[in-house]
Amino acid sequence: MRSLQLCVLVAGIRDKIKETSDERVMTAKLVRPSKFLPEGICIQRINNLTLFKFTDKLGERMQELLDKHKLDTLTPDEKIELEAIGELDDIFSYINAVIAAQDNAHS
Question: What is the distance between the alpha carbons of residues 20 and 39, in angstroms, rounded to a whole number?
Fold first, then answer.
């Protein structure tokens, strides 16, 4: 049952990524959120939950870009990079919330 839920979750994420890609086809340059997966993501065990988190390096990069955004000094490439990291953050927040909800349901 749990593997079926995970498969449904992964399929939903795939659809979300496709929607995002379709919306951004008009953008001249696209940074795919998956670009950050090899080095920017780690899995941590927190309060008996296994959750997806940004590495310190990617978290610092996101903060740097957010700071530049507040100052209105982002280059066009940095805007695209920030959007991609933000999309990945949204995806992992959703996955982590589902994991936490499932754990609460089984407790």
Answer: 22
Q: Tell me how far apart the alpha carbons of residues 83 and 81 are, in angstroms, rounded to a whole number.
A: 5
Instruction: State the residue for tokens 């990617």.
Output: 58
95: which 2 tokens?
Answer: 């996955």
pTM listed for this prediction? 0.68
Reported as a single tens digit per residue, the pLDDT across 63-102 is: 999 999 999 999 999 999 999 999 999 999 999 999 999 8
Please spell the DSSP secondary structure of 6-50, one letter per residue.
HHHHHHHHHHHHHHHHHHTTTSSS---GGGGHHHHEEEEEETTEE
